[in-house]
Design goal:
alpha/beta, Rossmann fold, 7-stranded mixed beta sheet, 7 strands, about 20% strand, SAM-dependent_MTases_sf, Methyltransf_12, Class I SAM-dependent methyltransferase, transferase
Length: about 240
């Protein structure tokens, strides 16, 4: 789930419990995330490099179901477990998925509420930036524990330099949203929320979190203004 549904720079999760904000959710990500649809397409391609045709996929931060729909439409043999803490977002996912729900199980909660698996692959898109560094590494480790050895994991979220250029990058985030059709006030509020509340890390730190969480062969595959995405594979040693 991305933070573009956020109406005020206060509590991100609360926005995902607001039915009106959730109903508008699908309009937000393409305006705030450059290459949003391409990110989903690339995610499917990367997972398919190692996941079988009948793969079981764990989707953490399933949000309104946009990622689930894209993956399910592209890979007809895959089944999914989608996990999200916001009940309204899961209801929106059901509406988004429609008949595709026969291959999807939705779980309200965090990674600790997800089935043990083991899964053939996992994704966590536009979600980890909500967690502080310690909670982020714990979550990555919990994903790793639920994967088969060698299984691919794709993560993508807000990640950009945290040095003196941080404000400049956040300004670019806002400018892109406005250029893509977002309301100026909405974009300004989103910018304030990012500055005040998101736990953004530098890209090299984010990659290190994935490695510390148990993933090898971590590669950057997506970089678009304030967003980064990585592919990694679960280490063979699951102990």
């Amino acid at each position: 789930m991305t933070h573009s549904a956020q109406p005020e720079p206060t509590n991100f999760v609360a926005a995902f419990s607001d039915p009106e904000a959730v109903a508008r959710y699908a309009d937000g990500p393409p305006r705030f995330v450059p290459g949003f649809e391409a990110l989903h397409r690339m995610t499917g391609i990367l997972l398919a490099e190692h996941a079988p045709a009948d793969a079981s996929i764990l989707v953490l931060g399933a949000g309104g179901g946009l990622e689930l729909r894209a993956l399910a439409e592209a890979h007809h043999g895959w089944t999914f477990v989608g996990v999200d803490p916001a009940r309204e977002m899961l209801r929106q996912a059901e509406r988004t998925l429609g008949s595709l729900m026969d291959r999807v199980t939705l779980v309200e909660g965090t990674i600790d509420d997800a089935p043990d698996g083991p899964f053939d692959a996992a994704t966590c898109l536009l979600t980890l930036h909500f967690l502080d560094p310690a909670a982020r590494e714990d979550t990555v480790r919990a994903i790793h524990r639920r994967l088969k050895p060698g299984a691919p994991f794709v993560a993508a979220h807000g990640s950009f330099p945290q040095d003196d250029s941080r404000s400049r990058w956040i300004a670019r985030y806002e400018a892109y949203a406005v250029a893509s059709g977002a309301d100026r006030d909405q974009a300004a509020k989103a910018r304030s929320a990012v500055e005040a509340h998101l736990h953004t890390l530098a890209p090299e730190t984010d990659a290190a979190v994935l490695r510390a969480g148990g993933f090898r062969d971590v590669e950057l595959f997506f970089a678009a203004f304030t967003w980064r995405g990585w592919i990694g594979r679960a280490c063979q040693d699951k102990g």
